[in-house]
Design brief:
Largest interface: A-B, 22 and 22 residues
CATH superfamily of the largest domain in chain A: NAD(P)-binding Rossmann-like Domain
Number of domains of chain A: 2
Largest sheet of chain A: 10 strands, mixed
Number of strands of chain A: 10
Structural class of chain A: alpha/beta
Distance between the termini of chain A: 43 Å
Order of helices and strands of chain A: EHEHEEEEHEHEEHEHHHHHHH
Shape of chain A: globular
Strand content of chain A: 15-25%
Number of helices of chain A: 12
Oligomer: homodimer
CATH architecture of the largest domain in chain A: 3-Layer(aba) Sandwich
CATH topology of the largest domain in chain A: Rossmann fold
Chain lengths: ~300, ~300
């Protein structure tokens, strides 16, 4: 499969490298890493075993790549206004577009530009960081859940699942992409938000009863908003408790938004907070704590 | 009048100095400033004019002072567990105790130890800081509103108002001490809390529409809790807007809790947040934003 990677940060480089290693025809749109990758290839340091790709096809502009079978979008969501210039030249008649971005609203934005029938959503549970140019560090997890944006064709989802599985990515299909997106937000909103705001890792928040209680209250607000969106099956409150227990095993984990703040990068507040708040509000769901957290993050990073 | 100052921080030193200057017999219980004050006196740098008191009566222990007519309590509220040892030796049969401390619960704690009939509450609107030992800086305001804790004797309140007025303190009496305390909290909770959490001065919070809106929402939660306490007259929502307008003139003002955090001192979270939350909860009032702010402050200062 001819694949273009747009937004070759840690996520794009990591999945792109795995797909190339398994034999796919992968083309990376690069900026910071262009010189390093095109001259020395790509090095992946992974908990599953390190590997090097000595020859990698890197490009500075999408029209050098042209139409592909699959565009894998890993852009930071605050750059979504660049979809036309970055994704447009890669889209031919039968091109699929898979967004693995954070938060809500990414499928919608791509669908509006390129047609909803070619949009696939993926929820990635990946812990990875960029290292030096040409290097990517895979620190944990890596699972992808894939779903149709418009439920057009379950068959092509199965083919993508097979492709990722062949590349040693833990990948499964879902019939309810919306639910998977919201499930991820149940974790992402409290932990990305609070860890970034307080500049404390996951285990510090969970160690204090009051703060742990706040995390849970925020989770319940997200679950209430999720269940107002017409999911096939509602998310029950027990999901919050299972996420807390799951997080107890994460130790000093620093969510991506905390790292982004430490490194003074822009935060994905609009997609992770703004869009869920808007979807909640549209269904009459109050989310005072989520709203306050978003305002505090915006204010703290001015 | 024979007066003891307990908790000779910026507030205690400032009002004590004004009272001594106007002819009262003032005795300061000191710790950090003992050596400086007993050897060189007290210097007040004030927007109303600087002055020096070359001779000041300073003590290390309250039994060196003994019973007085009036104890003025300016302790940080997290030291209220030291009331027995610090205030006890100063209390005789007819001693009045005036607390000018922050937040809620101080009159109650003093009343339980020394009897409610001798307790006067004062709400101070003062901007002052300690400087070098033996120095205090008065940066703005200074008004005190005095009220009876048990409404025993309006006459003695009038005498205290007269005493402070003679010392050039803008002082007035209130018949509803509870309302005055809550009115101050309408400002103190959002601004002390948010400025300390975000380490931003008042004007930075007010400049952003979303953050200004959050300040207002927090004020409305405090007003709702206040009005559930059985005040003589309720506080209306317009009070929030007038406090916002008032704050627009404060410029880069840093509330005391922000300064305390910058200087890594303990914060008065229990009296300014914990007690109002408990009083609200007892009347069935939800204060999600105030509660979240208190948790975030506790967590941020671990």
């Amino acid at each position: 499969m001819r694949i273009a990677i747009v937004g070759a940060g840690a996520l794009g480089l990591y999945y792109g490298a795995l797909l190339q290693r398994s034999g796919e025809d992968v083309h990376f749109l690069l900026r910071r890493d262009y010189d390093a990758v095109t001259s020395h290839g790509l090095r992946v340091f992974s908990i599953n075993g390190d590997f090097t790709l000595p020859h990698v096809r890197g490009y500075r502009a999408p029209d050098e790549i042209g139409p592909v079978d699959l565009v894998l979008v890993g852009l930071k969501t605050f750059a979504n206004d660049r979809f036309p210039e970055l994704v447009g030249p890669l889209v031919g008649e039968s091109t699929l577009i898979l967004t693995l971005q954070n938060g809500l609203g990414n499928e919608e934005a791509l669908a509006e530009l390129f047609g909803g029938e070619r949009i696939i959503g993926g929820v990635a549970f990946l812990c990875s960081n960029r290292g030096e140019p040409g290097e990517v560090h895979h620190l944990g997890a890596g699972r992808i859940v894939l779903g149709e944006y418009q439920r057009c064709d379950r068959g092509r989802i199965e083919r993508l699942v097979a492709m990722f599985s062949k590349a040693w990515v833990d990948c499964r299909a879902t019939d309810d992409l919306k639910r998977s997106r919201w499930e991820k937000l149940v974790w992402n909103i409290p932990f990305n938000g609070l860890c970034a705001l307080l500049q404390q890792p996951v285990n510090m928040l969970l160690a204090q009863g009051a703060c742990r209680g706040l995390v849970r209250e925020i989770m319940l607000e997200v679950i209430a908003a999720a269940n107002a969106q017409g999911l096939d099956r509602p998310i029950d409150e027990g999901y919050a408790d299972s996420m807390l227990e799951f997080s107890d095993n994460m130790g000093e984990y620093r969510p991506s938004m905390q790292i982004d703040r430490e490194e003074r990068r822009q935060l994905e507040i609009a997609s992770i907070f703004g869009a869920p708040l808007a979807y909640g509000r549209r269904q009459g769901i109050e989310m005072p704590r989520v709203e306050m957290l978003a305002i505090l993050l915006e204010q703290a990073t001015r």
